[in-house]
Amino acid sequence: MAKIDIAGGEVRVRFSDWERLAVWRREVVVPVAAIKDVEYVEEPVSRARGGRAGVLISGVLKVGFWGLGTGVRQLVSVRRGVPALRVGVDRAAGLPFDEVLISVRNAAELADALAPSVV
C-alpha cells in the first residue's frame, strides 16, 4: 500500500514495489503550493472514473492512471475498505495529472493537516 508523508512544503507519495508497475514511478512529489484542494474520501474505489492505464480488480482495487479521455487525469492507488486522501493539483506546476487519490488509513488526519495550506 502507498504511503504519504507531508514535510518541507511537499506531499510525497511512495508506492509499494508492485504498485510501481502500474503507476510507472517509485514516488510522486506534489509541492503544497501546487495543491488546489484536498478531500477525505470514505469510499474511494468509485471515485476513479474514465479510461485507465493500470490494475483493476472490480470493486476492490484500482492502481494506475484513471480519467483518460475525461479531461481530469487521476493518479490512483485505492482499495475497498480503506479511506483515501484526494489532492487536486494545478497541472501548470508541471505534474502530469489533475488529482492524486491514495488510500491510506490516516487520510482524515492528512486532509486536516493539508487543509490550512490550500489557498
Total strands: 9
Shape: globular
Radius of gyration: 13 Å
Beta-strand portion reads: over 45%
Alpha-beta classification: mainly beta
Spatial order of strands in the largest sheet? 4-8-9-7-6-5
The average pLDDT score comes to 93
Largest sheet: 6 strands, mixed
Number of helices: 2
Calculate the terminal CA-CA distance, rounded to whole Å. Answer: 29 Å
Which regions are unreliable across 5 or more consecutive residues at pLDDT < 50?
A: none
Helix percentage = 10-25%
SSE succession: EEHEEEEEEEH
Short overview:
Helices cover 13% and strands 45% of the residues. By secondary structure, it is mainly beta.
What does this structure look like?
The chain has helices at about 15-25, 105-115, and strands spanning about 5, 10-15, 25-30, 35-40, 50-55, 60-70, 75-80, 85-90, 100-105. By secondary structure, the chain is mostly beta strands. Strand 1 and strand 2 (about 10-15) form a beta hairpin. The mean pLDDT is about 95. It contains 2 helices and 9 strands. The chain is about 15% helix and about 45% strand. A 6-stranded mixed β-sheet has the order 4-8-9-7-6-5.
Question: What is this structure's SSE topology?
Answer:
Elements: E1 3-7, E2 10-14, H1 17-23, E3 27-31, E4 35-41, E5 51-57, E6 61-68, E7 74-79, E8 84-89, E9 99-103, H2 107-114
Parallel strand pairs: 7-9
Antiparallel strand pairs: 1-2, 2-3, 4-8, 5-6, 6-7, 8-9
Core attributes:
six-stranded mixed β-sheet; 2 helices; single chain; mainly beta
